[in-house]
Amino acid sequence: PPAELAWLTDVIGASATLVLIEARGGTRVYVPHATRTDTPLVREIGLDAARKLADAFAGNVISVPVARAWRVRHYRAGGLSYAAIAHKLGCHEDTVWRLLRSTDKPEQFSLAV
Hints:
Radius of gyration: 16 Å
Shape: elongated
Largest sheet: 2 strands, antiparallel
Number of strands: 2
Strand content: 5-15%
Helix content: 55-70%
Strand order of the largest sheet: 1-2
Order of helices and strands: HHEHHEHHH
Structural class: mainly alpha
C-alpha cells in the first residue's frame, strides 16, 4: 500500500483496509467506542479490524480514501482484466490503463527479448 494509506494499514492491515475502501471509500465514517457485532462496520471489515480501528480512532470520524491507483494495481496483480477493474471502480477502462501507466516504472514496459 502507498504511504498515504499507512495511517490505516498500520492499524487494521492491508486486507481490511482494502475491504473498508471498497465498502466506504470516499466517505466519512464515525468510529464508535464500542464494537458491537451487529454494526455495519463490523460486518464489513470484521470484528478484529473494527476493534483495532476503535482502539485507534474511537469517537472520531475518519475519511476513508478512494485509493484508486492502489486498488487498480492490486486488482491487476490479482489477475483481473481491465474491464473487470473498471467495473469494480466505476470508471472507464481508459482510466484503468492511465492509472496503471502512471504508477508503473518505465522499465516495466520493456519487452523481453
